[in-house]
Design brief:
401 residues; alpha/beta; 7-stranded mixed β-sheet; 3-stranded antiparallel β-sheet; globular; binds pyridoxal-5'-phosphate
Amino acid sequence: MSGQASLSLDVASEALGLSSRLQGITKRNMKVPFLDLKAHHAPYIEEFNRAIGEVIETSAFAGGPFVEKFEQEFAEFCGSSNAIAVGNGTDALWLALLGLGIGEGDEVITVPNTFIATAEAISYCNARPVFVDVDPDTFTMNPAELEKSLTERTKAIIPVHLFGQPADMDPILEFARANGLFVVEDAAQAHGAEYKGRKAGTMGDAGCFSFYPGKNLGAFGEAGAVVTNDPELAKQIRMLRDHGQSRKYYHSLMGWNCRMDGIQAAVLSIKLRHLTEANSLRRKHAAEYSNALAGMDEVLTPVESTYARHVYHVYAIRVRERDLVAQNLQEKGIGCAVHYPVPVHLQDACRNLGYKRGAFPIAESLAEQFLSLPMFPELTGEQVEYVVRCVGEVVGAEALV
Ligand SMILES: Cc1ncc(COP(=O)(O)O)c(C=O)c1O
């Protein structure tokens, strides 16, 4: 379905008469959680316990050998020469920008339909987030929008690989090269995703990942990483994450404490071995959803770009009367979510940036329509079928499966 079609969706609920149709829907008992981490972890519990036991045994709690091992494994997985493990994905973005020398008075271009952390990291460098609108089909940065936001203060671009689909990197990299800008990829939702065969996170100067528990590669708490092929940048970020230390108690610069825990690294090493298979299962469920929902005029399904291998961290459909649809699905036992109800430029926290509603019509329209359906590797065919049937009932289509 085209982005144009999505934009022509009228969010005025009355015109659809959905509210009255929703009232007659029968309740069923099946429960489909939005995410089932317990099911995801169940097959490896013994392995996790053993690995955590080893961390305890060796007291390697903050940094240390488990972290170094995971850094090597993750760098190899991404095809990058360096991975620097940090405390979370927000730290990863912040330290990557600091390491590139972004600071006071600089501008960094990103997108408004992302998690607030992308903009927070820019602000925490005392730089200014500048937004550009997104492509209506991929929901990622529209490279054609970059030119009009360029100023002499622009220093970097942060494309966000939203929901697990990489942004259109070639034109973004070309624009950056032509204008002497750094590119930091926000790959927090895109572990293992690919752009023309290249792994997300490895195309810019740095790629930033979150290992928040619900991510495709998730820790047992907070964790993140930066990948980069630039050895000097890697060295700088390693110092910044560890109080600016070049060696113990010798501080070359003012840093912060953004280290990863040994326990998180030990867990991530185990989960990394299963990531490719888990991403394939997500792709299978996404294809099942998209095939089954394809006949419904009221639903727009996500589009995988020809350049991408999407890893469906989030499977977001677009519907009118999104909040009502979500509420009805929840009443039928289906966990759903909205990523994200308010685009970043309209958040109270960004009021000082001076953006008004209407500044980014595509991002704003998507925020009104997005509805994320249950998506995790262990989702069963029966659960997918149930979700599709309920979506069909809720939006008023005929039975779809
Ligand atoms: C797009 C994006 N960027 C950055 C982050 C920040 O990661 P963390 O929560 O690990 O700090 C997230 C986490 O949800 C994210 O989705």
